[in-house]
User: Fold this.
Amino acid sequence: MGIIKIKNSRVKPLMLHHPWVMSGAVSEIVNKPENGSLVKVVTENDEFIAWGFFSKHSQICVRLLSWNASDAIDMEWFSSRMSESIKRRLALSSRSDLNAYRLIYSEADFIPGLIVDKYSDYLVLQSVTAGIDKIKRDLADILLQLTGACGVVEKNIGPFRATEGLSESSTLLAGTNPPDCLDIIESGFRFQVDMLSGQKTSFYLDQRANKSRISHYVSDCSVLDVFSYTGGFSVYAIGAGARSVCRIDISESALKTGTQNLRLNFDPLSFQDSIMCQDAFSALRDLIRSKVYFDLIILDPPKLAPRRSAVKNALRAYKDLNMQAMKLLKPDGILATFSCSGAISLDQFRDTLMWAAADSKCEAHILEMLTQGIDHPVRLSFPESIYLKGFICRIIR
Ligand code: SAH
Assistant:
């Protein structure tokens, strides 16, 4: 078995259960472990620290699984970790008004590299590390037994695959294939989810509670849903009495599914819906030029800072978006603004909003601070698991 020796100066965070061994923390690699193999992580004096999966091609060269030397990291171990994680979702699984939520959230659920989302009777699995990728079929079989789901598909796409030396793959792992278009229920609303070709894991489950929070402010409002994807916020808004929604997204297919989602839930005569299929930065400027104003604006952009080196430019983009949105709000209008960039802190995001308000010549009250849903828990020993930050603000001028 491969052994990874850690520099004395870098041992402490690992002992405190931070699950990442960065390549700079390693003093020696013994026995040439294979990519994705189980390794023993030890101090320079050979004292046991933890078991972990080795990632040969990544800066994060080991993800720690267990700090218990007597643990055997076998399928039984994974089965019991997955079962514990699923049990922690009881607050969601016992709700009759929803059937889609995250079952396993990687490091935060003590299984680094494994993400599993439930969409009605089907599961979507992402293996983020080479170690998990090797055993994904066995994990999928166990998941079928643990949940009674009909099928598990993998959705392994995105740049992280290459950093782990893995190729992209979207296919069935266990059970039966889901239908092309699956209906899910969230907070009593119906949504169509395309499990294999939708973005990320098909639906933004992390915003569930935030969509409900925004419902408290939308009664009789005109709503602008920027980066609307398949209309999650719009459906909640119309459901809570909004008069109209205007959805902006660069993806034509996402907007189309959004229109279907609105129709699945509401009589088309009961609300006004319009779409702008274009880059949000230019769409907001077009709206300002046309002097169209809104009561409530939602800004939920994709991850603008995917890595630390992108933070400076991303902060500029967040400021620009928020400044344009503030200009488009009627007096006392509500801005619900989000950042899902883990590399940007809550303070940085709030400061950016302050600059945006100053430059659009308004004041703002923060009414609520929001974060990711309870099925995307934040593990205290792993601060990197916090990524979603949001503010509901009243814009005052
Ligand atoms: N609010 C959505 C999730 C948004 S995800 C929900 O709760 O379901 C981000 C969305 O931004 C995606 O739909 C993507 O197509 C869109 N997008 C990415 N870049 C864009 C751009 N420059 N202009 C407009 N939309 C963009």
In short: The CA atoms of residues 234 and 326 lie 19 Å apart. The chain has a mean pLDDT of 96. Residues 311-327 form the longest helix (17 residues).
